[in-house]
Amino acid sequence: MRTVDLITKKRDGGELSKSEIDALVQGYTQGSIPDYQMSAMAMAIFFRGMTPDERANLTMAMVHSGEVIDLSGISGVKVDKHSTGGVGDTTTLVLAPLVAAVGVPVAKMSGRGLGHTGGTIDKLESVPGFHVEIDNEQFISLVNRNGLAIIGQSDKLTPADKKLYGLRDVTGTVNSIPLIASSIMSKKIASGADAIVLDVKTGDGAFMKEMDEAKELAACMVDIGNRVGRRTIAVLSDMSQPLGNAIGNALEVREAIDTLRGVGPKDLTELCLTLGSHMTVLAGIAATQAEAAELLKEAIASGKAIEKFKTFLTAQGGDASVVDEPSRLPTASFQIEVKAERSGYVASIAAESMGLAAMMLGAGRATKESAIDLAVGIVLHKKVGDPVTAGESLATIHANSEEVAEVRSKIVASIVIQDAPVTPQPLLSGEIV
Ligand code: URA
Ligand code: CA
């Protein structure tokens, strides 16, 4: 089978078979198929798309290109959650202990932040002592003992995806829905998930800015998951403004603690209950979404959720006293208010540029190698739709330098205030099962 024949087949609208896709992925990973042929293939896929069978076969070929985590030593249905990425998205910090508190086993691999979006591992590392350097055996025994553990993404997973993503990045082929969907799903499946809940974001701060594209991506991922025997559900959620109030690592840990105590921001709480209910149902612990939501609310009200968070932090070396004394978390030297220049209603808070403003303070990485400042970030005091009076604080900048003029102007430019009342975008706009 010559690679050029596969490229022309796809170019002309044909369907690649499972064995053809396997050969392509294997050959590319091992280096017998060169970058120039794979980039032609990626471009052919970009224009021709992929059939449902092709997408599922590509996903599984990438899963088998590297290590596959075996979670069979943990009893129960291992449900993973994946977010397509956003600004101030603190959901994993809340969800993991929350669903673990009702008996859903959480064996999670998370990533670090890059660009304007934050990463769960960075956020957790703002808890003094907390670390994710544990081996697979320890990981499984922690999940069996405590119901949850979080480790870093192993770099042995899905080498085919890593190589292909790098190629797509420089050949104008990132933005292909079947390629994005198989990339994301391959990583989830290789991390050992039996079932998957996807949080697909839309709006300014999201990877998919448009609702129709987000829906298409969600449907494509759900189809792949279900086709390969992993029950998958997608929730479409708004990322036109940051989620919750806090953006920044230690600030988001505080926000997660508040939410686990039942006093967190409304949008973050609602999203966690929705995603958490799906996880609880998929794990077979509740029969319906409503029953699951009740269990989760009870875990918050009774303190079980916050206790689970403490157990989890302690088990991974973290100082759990931060939960009762959040002032022990890294704290920035300067708190600077950004005041409203006029009265009215908040019309929009551009999520992506708020994420970039937090990155300028040092909360995020410009490149994979950059160091980050865990203490800094932004806390919003207003959300879209809220009334504001001139002079009122819109946000607090948490900085380790007093020179924040540029960040301040970015925040001011990102928050639009208008005279007429505003109805915010709904947080949730549907589910795909
Ligand atoms: N995120 C991924 O993991 N893969 C893509 O292709 C795009 C976004
Ligand atoms: Ca947040």
From TrEMBL:
<comment type="function">
    <text>Catalyzes phosphorolysis of the pyrimidine nucleosides uridine, thymidine and 2'-deoxyuridine with the formation of the corresponding pyrimidine base and ribose-1-phosphate.</text>
</comment>
<dbReference type="GO" id="GO:0016154">
    <property type="term" value="F:pyrimidine-nucleoside phosphorylase activity"/>
</dbReference>
<dbReference type="InterPro" id="IPR000312">
    <property type="entry name" value="Glycosyl_Trfase_fam3"/>
</dbReference>
<feature type="domain" description="Pyrimidine nucleoside phosphorylase C-terminal">
    <location>
        <begin position="345"/>
        <end position="418"/>
    </location>
</feature>
<dbReference type="InterPro" id="IPR017459">
    <property type="entry name" value="Glycosyl_Trfase_fam3_N_dom"/>
</dbReference>
<dbReference type="InterPro" id="IPR018090">
    <property type="entry name" value="Pyrmidine_PPas_bac/euk"/>
</dbReference>
<dbReference type="Pfam" id="PF00591">
    <property type="entry name" value="Glycos_transf_3"/>
</dbReference>
<keyword id="KW-0328">Glycosyltransferase</keyword>
<dbReference type="InterPro" id="IPR035902">
    <property type="entry name" value="Nuc_phospho_transferase"/>
</dbReference>
<dbReference type="Pfam" id="PF02885">
    <property type="entry name" value="Glycos_trans_3N"/>
</dbReference>
<dbReference type="InterPro" id="IPR000053">
    <property type="entry name" value="Thymidine/pyrmidine_PPase"/>
</dbReference>
<dbReference type="InterPro" id="IPR036566">
    <property type="entry name" value="PYNP-like_C_sf"/>
</dbReference>
<dbReference type="InterPro" id="IPR013102">
    <property type="entry name" value="PYNP_C"/>
</dbReference>
<keyword id="KW-0808">Transferase</keyword>
<comment type="subunit">
    <text>Homodimer.</text>
</comment>
<protein>
    <recommendedName>
        <fullName>Pyrimidine-nucleoside phosphorylase</fullName>
        <ecNumber>2.4.2.2</ecNumber>
    </recommendedName>
</protein>
<dbReference type="Pfam" id="PF07831">
    <property type="entry name" value="PYNP_C"/>
</dbReference>
<dbReference type="InterPro" id="IPR017872">
    <property type="entry name" value="Pyrmidine_PPase_CS"/>
</dbReference>
<comment type="similarity">
    <text>Belongs to the thymidine/pyrimidine-nucleoside phosphorylase family.</text>
</comment>
<dbReference type="InterPro" id="IPR036320">
    <property type="entry name" value="Glycosyl_Trfase_fam3_N_dom_sf"/>
</dbReference>
